[in-house]
Amino acid sequence: MKAPFYADHVGSFLRPARVKEARLQKENGDITAEQLRAIEDEEIIRLVEKQKEVGLKAVTDGEMRRAWWHFDFLAALDGVELYEAEAGIQFKGVQTRAHGIKVTGKIDFTNHPMIEDYKFLHSIKGDHVAKFTIPSPNMLLFRGTVDENVYADQESLLTDLVKAYQKAIQAFYDAGCRYLQLDDTAWAVFFSEAGKEQIAKRGQNPETLLPMFQRAINESIANKPEDMVITMHICRGNFKSTYTASGGYDAAAEVIFGGLNVDGLFLEFDDERSGGFEPLKYVNRPDLKIVLGLITSKFGELEDPEAIKARIQEAAKYAPLEQLCLSPQCGFASTEEGNLLTEEQQWEKVSHVINIANDVWK
Fold it and tell me: CA-CA distance, 119 to 207, in Å (whole number)?
């Protein structure tokens, strides 16, 4: 079976105390960048061994070298910078650190540090599949601040962004990557009234924005090699066990399930905020895998396995069971702060996914 697997995971894992401490030491000038990287290398080796040990088929580096799931990648594109914002991103009851990204020059993908990050993961994957995660192009298209002197309109921005992503995908492929995931919180603006207000504030409307999001994904992956799997994770926010958005997939369902050329979709379905499974009726390809995020990564308590199995069967009314898979709804640490559970609970969650999947897809 090729990826995504019946038991899979989104990608990020809790950062060990040793990595957090080393990052602070590097920030304070107590250790060098090389010393920090050596510590990260050791912890990534340990993490990959643990993923193999619990029974995962795909292994990631846990996003161990990143502070943010998206800014670190985007800020390393040509023409994009990380900056100190006036305020952080507002989640339910908590705010992130005040950072943002801005486009200050022509966007391109040339000497990107994450290619080396992938190569290290590839060197330790053994017989397993190495999965690497990067933010979707929509994260820059919709969430980035753009200098109008560089790009006067979204169409010209989209053109260069797509070219940069096409280069990125080829570069990861050339480095050995055969399982790449695009992470995307931007789709959530279509899911609720609050999201639609965000779109209106930007002087846009869902009718034109939705096809633009679709194009950003499909055109970016248009030249992907045949033996490379590209999936997308659609998220409603994940920071210190909180979220930013609510609402079902309904308003964008035809495009998401019937109009994207990805090989798989990782979807949040861990609570009522994500709506029902009815939108899966738009799945129109036998080769599209739907990864149901029914296990929460936000809290340590384990879900009732029978209740999860019942929900999988409910989803199977709308999409064939053999096209469904199971995973946590998101990573365990979308930012370096991580969710509010212990490493032990994290691994119990991963084992829970694997055990349930083994029962369902015998």
Answer: 40
